[in-house]
Write a structure and sequence with these properties.
- The protein has about 300 residues and is of the alpha/beta class.
- It has one domain: 3-Layer(aba) Sandwich (Carbamate kinase).
- It contains ten helices and 16 strands.
- The strands form five sheets. It has an eight-stranded mixed sheet with strand order 5-10-2-1-13-15-16-14, with helices on both faces. Strands 3-4 form a two-stranded antiparallel sheet.
- A hairpin with a 2-residue loop joins β3 and β4.
- The longest helix is centred in the middle third of the chain and has 25 residues.
- It is globular, with a radius of gyration of 20 Å.
- It binds adenosine-5'-diphosphate and N-acetyl-L-glutamyl 5-phosphate.
- Adenosine-5'-diphosphate binds next to α9.
- Pathway: Amino-acid biosynthesis; L-arginine biosynthesis; N(2)-acetyl-L-ornithine from L-glutamate: step 2/4.
- Keywords: Amino-acid biosynthesis, Arginine biosynthesis, ATP-binding, Cytoplasm, Kinase, Nucleotide-binding, Transferase.
- This is Acetylglutamate kinase.
- One of its GO terms (molecular function) is ATP binding.
C-alpha cells in the first residue's frame, strides 16, 4: 500500500467516524436495551463483534442494558442429558427438573459468556438474572387453547414458565450508575420463591418498559418483519402490526417479538426495532445510520 493509499484509507475512516456525530448527540446518556438472542450468538467472530459494539456504546456515553436468550444452548444441554422438550406458541414447557437445567444454562454458562464478550472488549459487564436484586418477580404464565372448531377453551399447563409481574430496576440503575453494563438472564422468581423460565423477548420488553428506555433492539436471525413477498418492512405503526397479524403475514416466533415491541412502545419506549443479528455490527448500524437496518415499531 502506498502512502497516498494509506492517507485515503485514513480519510475514509475519519469520514465514517464523523458521520456518527448526530447520532452520538441524539443518544448521549440514552438507555438502550439490547435483546441478544441465542441464535445470534452462534458464530464466534460475530459474538466478539457484538461484545465490542456494546463496549463502544458505553464508551460514547450510552447506557446499554443487555438481555440475552439461550434457547439453542438449553436445547444442546437437554440433548446431552437426554431430556426431551416441547414447545407451545414458541414457549418451552418447563417442568421442575427442566427449570434447574434452564437456570444453569441461562444464568450460568450463557450469562457469563455474554458478560465475558463485553469484558474482553474493555468494558465492565456484570451478569445477573431476574432473581438478583428483586429485578423480576414472576408469576406462572397461563395459556389457553381452543379445539379445532373453536368452541371449547382448554387451559394448558406450561409448568415453570413465567411472565414478569413486577420489575424493580434498582439493581440496573445501581450497575449503570457505577459505570457497569448489566447483562440479564431471563429467569425470574415467584412470590413463593419458585424459579421461572421466561421468554427472553418478554424480559427485554419488560425491562425496557420499566426503565423508560429510549430504544429496544431485538437481535434475531431474520432481516426484520417481512411482508408477504419476503421483503423487509422498514417501519410499522402499532395499528399496522395488528393488521399484519390478523392477515397472517406475521406468524410463529415473530408474534412474541412484535407483541414485546408493541408493549414496550405502549410503556413509553420511543422505538423498538427487530434487527438482523447475523449482520456484523448490527447494533451500530441500527443506531448510527439514518433509517437503520431492521423493522422499527413505533406508536
Ligand atoms: N412476517 C414475518 N417476518 C419475519 N419473520 C417471520 C414472520 N412471520 C413469522 N416469522 C418467523 O419468525 C422467526 C423469528 O422468531 P424466532 O425464531 O423465535 O427468533 P429468535 O430465536 O431470535 O427469538 C423467523 O425466523 C420466521 O420464521
Ligand atoms: C419460556 C421459554 O421458552 N424460555 C426460553 C428462554 C430462552 C430464550 O428465550 O432464548 P432465545 O431468545 O434464544 O429464544 C427457553 O426456554 O428457550
Amino acid at each position: 500500500m502506498t502512502i497516498s493509499d494509506r492517507h485515503a484509507d485514513a480519510a475514509e475512516q475519519a469520514r465514517i467516524v464523523a458521520l456518527a456525530l448526530p447520532y452520538l448527540r441524539r443518544y448521549a446518556g440514552a438507555t438502550i436495551v439490547v435483546k441478544y438472542g441465542g441464535h445470534a450468538m452462534g458464530e464466534e467472530s460475530l459474538a466478539e463483534e457484538f461484545g465490542r459494539d456494546i463496549a463502544l456504546l458505553k464508551q460514547v456515553g450510552i447506557n446499554p442494558v443487555v438481555v440475552h436468550g439461550g434457547g439453542p444452548q438449553i436445547n444442546a444441554m437437554l440433548k446431552r442429558l437426554a431430556i426431551q422438550s416441547t414447545f407451545v406458541d414458541g414457549l418451552r414447557v418447563t417442568d421442575a427438573a427442566m427449570v434447574e437445567v434452564v437456570e444453569m444454562v441461562l444464568a450460568g454458562t450463557v450469562n457469563k459468556m455474554v458478560a465475558g464478550l463485553i469484558n474482553r472488549a474493555g468494558a465492565l459487564a456484570v451478569g445477573i438474572c431476574g432473581k438478583d436484586g428483586g429485578l423480576i418477580r414472576a408469576r406462572k404464565l397461563t395459556r389457553t387453547t381452543r379445539d379445532p372448531e373453536g368452541a371449547i377453551e382448554r387451559a394448558l399447563d406450561l409448568g415453570f414458565v413465567g411472565e414478569p409481574e413486577h420489575v424493580d430496576v434498582r439493581v440496573i440503575h445501581a450497575l449503570t450508575g457505577a459505570g457497569l453494563i448489566p447483562v440479564v438472564a431471563p429467569v425470574g422468581v415467584g412470590a413463593d420463591g419458585a424459579t421461572y423460565n421466561i421468554n427472553a423477548d418478554t424480559v427485554a420488553g419488560a425491562i425496557a418498559g420499566a426503565l423508560g428506555a429510549n430504544r429496544l433492539l431485538m437481535l434475531t436471525d431474520v432481516a426484520g418483519v417481512l411482508d408477504r413477498n419476503g421483503k423487509l418492512i422498514p417501519d410499522l405503526s402499532i395499528a399496522e402490526v395488528e393488521a399484519l397479524r390478523a392477515d397472517g403475514t406475521i406468524s410463529g416466533g415473530m408474534i412474541p417479538k412484535v407483541e414485546t415491541c408493541i408493549e414496550a412502545v405502549r410503556q413509553g419506549v420511543k422505538g423498538a426495532t427487530i434487527v438482523d443479528g447475523r449482520v456484523p455490527h448490527a447494533c451500530l448500524l441500527e443506531l448510527f445510520t439514518e433509517g437503520g437496518i431492521g423493522t422499527l415499531i413505533h406508536a
